[in-house]
Amino acid sequence: MWKIVAAFIAFAALSLFVIMKGGDNLDMSGEKHGTETTHEAEKPAAAPAAAEAPAAAPAPAQKP
After folding, report:
1. Structure pTM?
2. Whether the Cβ atoms of residue 18 and residue 11 lie closer than 8 Å to each other
3. Torsions phi, psi of 24, nearest 5?
4. Which band of pLDDT confidence, cut at 50, 70 and 90, is reported for residue 21?
């Protein structure tokens, strides 16, 4: 039981050390999506030309 307590204290101390060293640069808000992201999206080199839709086939003749 004392090993679990010692491991918890060691982990907590290590976590606090990392947080204190990070200072203002440490962001713990999780994943970001949308306008608050800081990375630039890669732009495609060249967009491929859209393929033309095939012409509509004539309607079959109806028999009287």
Report:
1. 0.40
2. no
3. -75, -15
4. confident
